[in-house]
Amino acid sequence: xxxxxxxxxxxxxxxxxxxxxxxxxxxxxxxxxxxVNLDPGNDVLPYEASIDVSHLITVDNVxxxxxxxxxxxxxxxxxxxxxxxxxLLEELKKFSDCYFLIDCPGQVELYTHHDSVQNIxxxxxxxxxxxxxxxxxxxxxxxxxxxxxxxxxxSLATMLKMGxxxxxxxxxxxxxxxxxxxxxxxxxxxxxxxLQEIVSLLSDDPxxxxxxxxxxxxxGLVEDYSLVSFYVLSIxxxxxxxxxxxxxxxxxxxxxxxxxxxxxxxxxxxxxxxxEFEDAxxxxxxxxxxxxxxxxxxFVSKGR
Length: 304
Hints:
alpha/beta, two-stranded antiparallel ribbon
C-alpha cells in the first residue's frame, strides 16, 4: 500500500512551501519522501521534485501552441495528464518505498466542478494509493467575515467533489497579525463554531445586510453537513507540523497501515512533539501572533 497527501488549495495558499517544509519534517522523523509536482505552470520549485509533470507538458507550451490563456492552458494540461495517467503511474512506481507529497495546481475550479483531478486521483486509488486531500487556505481570510464564509463554502464544495479523505488547513498562521485582528478567538475558526456569530458580523455591513437570509441559509448548509473544520499551520512551529501530519496520517490510513514497530516509533515522536500542544492546539499561535482586546464568553472581539 502506498500513502501520501494530495496538497490542494487556492493560488498563493502555500502549497509548494508546505510540500517543501513537510518533506523536510518527514525526513527528520525518518520517512522516505517523494515530492510530485503536478502543477504544469509551476516552474520555480524550492524542492527537488522526484516526479515533475513539466517533463510531460507545461502551461507555457500549451498557451503558445493552442493560443489559450493561463486558465484554459492549465485545464488543457490537466485533461492531457488525465489521458496520460499511465505515465504518472509508471513514474510513481519508481518510488514505491516512499511517502508521497503531491503538489497540485492552484486553480480552484479544478477541485470544485472540473473532473480531471478527481479522475486522476481515482486512477491512483485503483492502483493502490491511499491518499488524503490536504486543502490549504490562507489564514488571513479569517480576519474578514465575508472571506471566511467564502473559504467555508469552497472547502465544503472541494470535500464533496473530490470524495477523498480530507483535512482543511489554515496556512501562514504566523502572518495573521499583518492582516488585522480577529473578531473571535482562533479556535472559533478552526473548530467552525456557532456560525450565526458570523452572520451577525455580516449584517453589520450595510452592503451585506440585505443578504442576511442568504447568509443564514449558507451558514446553515455548512453546519448541516458538519464536515468543515481546520488545522492551523505555521511551518515555523514543529507542533503545528506534527498536528497536520497526524491528521493526514489518520485520514489516508498511514497510521493504521504501518507495522507495529514503526507505529510505536511514530506515536512516540508525535507525543514528544505535541505533549504540551495537545490541550490547546492553537494557544501558542494565538499568544505569539494575535493581539486580543477583550474576552467575551470565550471569544475574542474588538468592540463587541
